[in-house]
Amino acid sequence: MSVNLQHYNILQEHDIRQPVDFNQQSRLMNVDKVYKAEISSIVELTEMEKLFHIRILDPAERERFTFQPGQFVMLEVPGYGEVPISISSSPSNRGFIELCIRKAGIVTGVLHRAHRGARVGLRGPFGTYFPLEKMKGHDILLIAGGLGLAPLRAPIFCVAEDRPDYRNVHILYGTRSPDQLLFNYQYEQWSRIDGVNLHIIVEKPDESWKGEVGLITKLLDKVKVDPKKTFAIVCGPPVMFKFVCGQLGRMGVPMHRMFVSLERRMHCGMGKCCRCNIGSTYTCLDGPVFDYWSVLNLKEAI
Amino acid sequence: MIFKTLAKKDFKELVENLLNSTEVIAPKRVGTNTRGKAIHQYLPVKTFGEIDLGYETTEYSAKTYLLPYRENLSTYHFKEDDWSQEIQYRDISRVLLGLHACDINAILKLDKVLARDKYPSPYYIARRKNTLIIGIDHMPCEGAFCHSLGTDTVTHGYDLFLTELEDRYFVNICSDRGYELIQAHNPGEVTYQDTLAYNAARRKISEAFDTHIEAQNLPTLLDIEFDSKVWTKWGDKCLSCGSCAMVCPTCYCYGVTERVSMNFEEGAKIKTLHSCNLLDFALVAGGHNFRPTKQTRLKYRYYHQHRGFMESYEEMKCVGCNRCGRVCLAGINPVSVIRDLQMEERV
Predict the structure, then answer these.
(1) Considering the entire predicted model, what is its pTM?
(2) Which of A68, A99, A216, B236 has the fewest CB atoms within 10 Å, counting from its CB?
């Protein structure tokens, strides 16, 4: 068997293309100062999830805030607390960011009661991101389960905006029941894009459901991609990773071209509080986006 | 590094000068345990007489003066529908006097995480840079295995480090402010006799260690023994109380909570040190707990101490002070757990 040694092009790295700054004297920053932002709009998605548009108030701060798809922010409601939320919008939207938030605890609970115009705090962006630059020229599999569509929506926007740079795109999405489907008003738009295929499946259908029924791996059986020219992003509950990534592996997709986004408890986002540690790895610094090989090497990761 | 000697009477004068001008934290005897041994803590002192430099160890480490158990990260002032954020860093000068090598090594490890790594913590740095550290050599304390980890000596991270030689101290000067401080108190030049006496004192300490562990193989071993029954055995004893992390000189993990004043005019974002042994450590929204059992939580603590930190910083997080072993209500101590893991008793 021949060894498949992947060519590594250092010039494709993001950092190497940044302007040189040999004089970077200090990295000491006022890292706990939040950007003051407002909830500029609220979109009801399901009973449990809402999409919040968050706009940083200070124009200069807003200008400085840029992110990569897959990164997250720490969203703070002063007096209630701070939560890590992955960014659901396109990096090219510089006016506001979109955060898809499930009502699950104290902070998310108060957010769900908040009105447009409410002032919140924002720190970030933090963490690693999906390597969309490297993914160019390849078939793309974007696979989400449940709330996993929230972090996956950013790369969906990227792929749609830079459509000619990618080959065929398959978006695979599964939830437990039809009423849990997020962003259903966007499905038609996504599936009409040239070369983008959207497949949706639910585990427990209701009477009106006419689509596929079963687990997300069932959708994967039908997808035809060239595994040697494919990148995959998988977002969802931990149990999904083993099955989906396992099946992708059997299809021939190399582990270093499968990316997952992990969820952990976080209190800082900056590699200090240790709450997100998996073994010795900080999910906030070394993640949340990991390639599948790294995940397999992390004890108790999935 | 510059070396001087300092007569004990001059040292007393130096400390009294410090006491007059700034807050001094030093080992102070606070009681006696059931075995008749003295209990010491690092506490603020007002007079030289309160300080007991001959102490064996303290129950709590000195980290609390750099990394307090509770710290206000920011205060929010609410006004109508808006708020403003106020952040204050503690920048009042303070002296930590009489720290042992393990505690200074612990601070060096905290420096790596909190002052040098990505996103250095301004809260920590403000305290650290305003803290003058005077360390002192000592005879090994009971059950400590710092010698096996190489943390029984320290070469930087302090301003002055003392080794007792009868009527004087052999002083290792490691900063300009330490140099200025000692210059004002009549230091002596180091003679050949002083060097001989210093080496003899160091050798005496080094040879007195009676607790040893095999540390080199731990990072690999912890990976190999990830599913070992050892974790069930010790985990079953664990009460998940988190005392070990509270007394640990290098444990830095924390949680953040917010509070609102009774008149709703102010809110505070409070950081409280946490412990990976506590039940909610890895609990996420929706109720999933990534480490639901005390066995996995205890394992994780050892994993971070002896393997995880190694991966990030090429050294172990543990300094071998055995404070966690002494404080544990369930009798879990690192030396036994590590020896068990190395299968010394199973062969």
Answers:
(1) 0.90
(2) B236
